[in-house]
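Section 3.1: Structural characterization of target chains.
Under the original work plan, the team committed to producing a structural model for every single-chain target entering the pipeline before any wet-lab resources were allocated. The record below documents one such target. The sequence was received from the expression subgroup and is listed exactly as submitted; it comprises 421 residues.
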Amino acid sequence: MSRFVSSPRILTVKELTGFLKELLEGNQALQNVWVRGEVSNCRLPSSGHMYFTLKDESASIRCVMFRSQVSRLIFRLEDGLQVLARGYVSLYERDGQYQLYVQELQPAGVGDLHLAFQQLKVKLEREGLFNPAHKSPIPVLPRRIGIVTSPTGAAIRDLITIITRRCPGVELVVAPAAVQGDAAPAEICLAMDRLNRFGGVDVIIVGRGGGSLEELWAFNTEPVARAIFASRIPVISAVGHETDFTIADFVADLRAPTPSAAAELVVPLKAELYRRLGELSLRLEQGITRRLEANRAKLGYLSQSWALTRPESRLNQLRQYIDTLSRQVHSLVQGQRQERHARLAELAGRLEVLSPLGILQRGYALCRTESGAVIREYGQVAPGQRVDVVLARGSLLCRVEEQRGEHGWQLARRQNRDGKH
């Protein structure tokens, strides 16, 4: 520092920012500092490094968290979250801004595990992984049960002991997996996948005995939750004690408070099965007996009926009934026939009245031209033209001598009448 003070000179920007960076990094109090604040402007680009700002009522500081530290976070950093950040202060020379390079993050006021649990629970619930509509029924009497747990823990011993005691003969398939530690989530997912590919498994129990939140954490991870949801086989979650709730419990088709409770839920008690079968057998026998007695009584009634004891009487009655129906049908047909004949005669009479032949029979004649056109007035023909006169019997071929109008025809009619007088 003295070299800058004793020899005042013009500094380049690089020299000044480098000097300031040395000052910040040389202060041991700033190399391991805890800062409390509210997260804002949080972003996570494709590089995997996280950038955000910590602020309070009157100040703010830019923060950087490199990818190696981000990968160890068990909760999701988001705007508005109050956190405690531990890291060191340095200067980012390109922008000339000092930054907090974060190496550790904790939620302020709540544990990071509890926060991660709540964040994942909200996320999966929004996606529908907890929806009862997606849950499959647990088979009443499974023949083969898959178990995902540690092969050395107390849970596997309890499951095997209780299941074989309650229902001997049920086949158990154990898919061993670590149930705590960093490797546990991947091993649980792999065991679930193996049981789904194994075939013939009717139901899967996944879980472990009790423990702290940290020890049960594998069952609060997103990969395990999605593996349970993706299982084609119904899954019973049996994690910890009765008061312990994990994400796996919410996703599974059925939650059991403990592994022992899961063993009691997954198979019925053999003695209870026998008792229930005995009750059903007795009910079936009683039902069949009642049905046989009812049918026997019905058969006795029918065997004494008139139709079976005197069938010829019944046949005679039916023959008489058929004869009566036959007579009624014949009478009906005859009546309809007479009615139709009378109707036909009436229509024929009307037709006869309207027939041109009937008019000709009364002395009238029908005049037509040679072309066949009916002559209705004198103007249709000329003198010398031949006409055909149709009579009741035969016809006359005539020649027109003279045309007379209506008055001429009336005059001739009067002359004829007067000549007679």
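The mean pLDDT is 86.
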